[in-house]
Design a protein that fits this description.
Blueprint: E1 2-3, E2 14-17, H1 40-43, E3 51-57, H2 62-77, E4 81-87, H3 92-97, E5 105-110, E6 115-120, H4 125-136
Parallel strand pairs: 3-4
Antiparallel strand pairs: 1-2, 2-6, 3-5, 5-6
Amino acid sequence: MTPDPRPRDADTPAREVLPPSGALPPGATAADAAGQPLDAGALRHPLGAAATFVQLSSAFCAPCRATRRILERVVATTEGVAHVEVDVADRADLAERFAVTRTPTVVLLDGGGRPVARVTGVPSLAQARAAVAAVAG
């Protein structure tokens, strides 16, 4: 994954763009290709018709609660968008698949379940809305 080169302070999330289909993030195996779709069965939750936020959190993560509130607000005001929060302790498979090193990590899936964007840290409401608009656009 390619981190955003813009400077940021500790409170600003690092937006990472997933590599093109077939490219692999550092340390990933061929089975973890970034373009590989994630279906409702693997996620254990229905996907949104337009987009799905997959929030990878941990039980004692205060920023995860802030992220949940922001993403739930986007879902409440945007048709066809879903939000799924999973605890990395319960879903090590997803944490490994998306190379999570910090919570919260949010992966945005398009309507077909393909990962298209990723944010580590708390996204702003504007960032979350812009990401959905770019995918569902």
